[in-house]
């Protein structure tokens, strides 16, 4: 099942890793470098799911999720948060901001694919 | 790109490149904090740099790097959260940690063993800032392998609470869900598969997070045979139905071969947003059957201790060990100015160096080819106004533009190099117990990448020298009426087509009497030599010269200024010293911007075609009778505008022919050095001015004084490129200094 994904992360390495995990699975991957850029890239896209990092310049992950959810069009778009920490309050904050779920870095490519397929159908 | 087809290896390589950028941002940020010009965003940048290094390192299983970065990040997070003030002590440790982090990155890249001792020492210093929280943050799990659920931080959170039992739509009141690694082998069902009954009732906020019950059920279906019953008892009449809120629950019977925790993992993201009960049908045989309506909501993944469905606890503050990241709201208008300034970075394309090298070579060929074309067109006797000639002029302009553009590709700001030097200053000043501040100027100056790389060693040595020999001890400085803190100024600037890098200290200056004495003691110069100040200063460049009375750790490692000078000359550069007693010493390095192409003046000497760097040539003259005056045998000067300039016979200096008897009618090139001193070179003829492609002379060639490199001319002929400073130094000192001075001592 091919999905269209937007991945937002300020680390080039992470963006590359995400692409490396998703492209072989037949996904279409768009990337952005931070929240502000993410909103720009999102314009005109209707991704099946979004992956976002938390710590980013200009607009962090929480702000980004807020901004995405503020647009009616994306109210139910699944958003997975990439986090290096499985700390409950981080997940809670992400969830409060409207995140669908989370992926703990470092992620296993197969699990990332699976998680996306689970939330995006 | 690279021929390497392993994408992981490529990403790994690019991760390390990214690390360099992040480390640079980290250094910059710390510098800004040190200068007292920091704001929240600077702290964020510093934090993110370390955070991103940690994140990437985790992906490649670089455990030691992850471990250190994590602890460093934890302390920085305290700063970010405003719980820790950055005082001078903290800053010192942060700088050291940044240095160590860059070491760890380098060592990880080389897959070398990590220096555990330093790491432990620094971790202790970092933890000291955490006070009682030290270690509470824990360490990343031993298991840094790809395990999305493997990073447990052992946060001892005893936050219990109900799960979505509150009907208010206030998400903030929700207690944090338990960490999803809360279940482990011990609490996982010890059975493999069987029949389960699953009750799933979405809570009111489930849709807000973009979760979709239908998908959850569909995912569940992949686990085995499933029958689903839909519970509509909560469904309001249509008029009251709020579509944003789920109203339907499900009871699912699942026969599967997977374990209970795998079923639970399907609901991982909605845990706390729904009522979920998973029970083994076999186990339920002991329980009285209950209707769905009075089933107690139980989170399947919770520890028994947190399973308190009936109590509604007030929301708890996060424990102090748990960092609360402060998001930068995108909507705030009171952003610090710096943030506004940090516009999105220009988009960057990474290009393999090999490709650029190839391009540089091709451009070189193009320049040569264009020269050949010019030459053959000239010979063809076309009118200067013909289309071919004017077309050729356009072609020349284009060639030059292409060449400049290609050179720009290879150019990099010297900032990264200067940052490395700030570390050298920190380390070397600490080693000799001096208080030193490095000031950098012109970090944005761009120089060819290779030049930057090859400057690192000589600069390191000179910075160490400045700290070790140049600057006085604090008490000596106070005695001399100076501030106790010594200053080293490192600057870069473009000057007439070259780049000039200066290392200046405000120390005691060169002790010329002592330098002279040492040189005499070491037999480098005769005891009765009379030398000018500049000549004495230049003695520092003699091999085997060291002023260090005591060989310290920093210098005197057998690497002297002569090695520095050789390295600079190998880059086509020159190094000069100026020093004022009591005020300090400045080393000035002048380098070509690129190592590939040169604007040259093609000249003829004794039938040989040679190329002289055009930027050295001030003017050309033709000698008339009586212009030349002999100071003493073998030493001639000419008068140029109220000044006398020493005359050098290039043909003789290069050994092409015996010295000229008469200079009448000879062509003179007046050349100027960086230090403003002039010299006049006697040549036979000027052939042309043109760009030449520098072809380095292989190591296997004897490095002849005065010869810098070679080039291929338009007619295919090979010509040597001269470095006249060598010739002048040699000829000059041969006159000034007795012949006991080893000639090669003053020429590389």
From TrEMBL, chain A:
Upper lineage: Bacteria, Pseudomonadati, Pseudomonadota, Alphaproteobacteria, Rhodobacterales
Keywords annotated in UniProt: Phosphoprotein
Domain Response regulatory: 4-120
Domain of life: Bacteria
Species assigned in the record: Sulfitobacter noctilucicola
Gene3D superfamilies the record matches: 3.40.50.2300
Record-linked PROSITE patterns: RESPONSE_REGULATORY (PS50110)
The name this protein goes by in its record: Two-component system chemotaxis response regulator CheY
Positions of post-translational 4-aspartylphosphate modification: 53
Biological process according to GO: phosphorelay signal transduction system
Keyword Signal: no
Pfam families linked: Response_reg
TrEMBL record, chain B:
Catalytic activity: ATP + protein L-histidine = ADP + protein N-phospho-L-histidine
Highest taxon of source: Bacteria
Region Disordered, annotated ranges: 304-344
Coiled coil: none
Top-rank EC class of the record's enzyme: transferase
Molecular function (Gene Ontology), one example: phosphorelay sensor kinase activity
Ranges where the HPt domain occurs: 4-108
Modified residues (Phosphohistidine): 51
GO cellular component, one term: cytoplasm
Record domain CheW-like: where: 597-733
Pfam families associated with the record: CheW, H-kinase_dim, HATPase_c, Hpt
Single Gene Ontology BP annotation: chemotaxis
Histidine kinase domain residues: 389-595
Keywords: ATP-binding, Chemotaxis, Kinase, Nucleotide-binding, Phosphoprotein, Transferase, Two-component regulatory system
EC number: 2.7.13.3
Family annotation (InterPro entries): Bact_Chemotaxis_CheA (IPR051315), CheA-like_dim (IPR004105), CheA-like_homodim_sf (IPR037006), CheW-like_dom_sf (IPR036061), CheW-lke_dom (IPR002545), HATPase_C_sf (IPR036890), HATPase_dom (IPR003594), His_kinase_dom (IPR005467)
Function: Involved in the transmission of sensory signals from the chemoreceptors to the flagellar motors. CheA is autophosphorylated; it can transfer its phosphate group to either CheB or CheY.
Protein name, entry field: Chemotaxis protein CheA
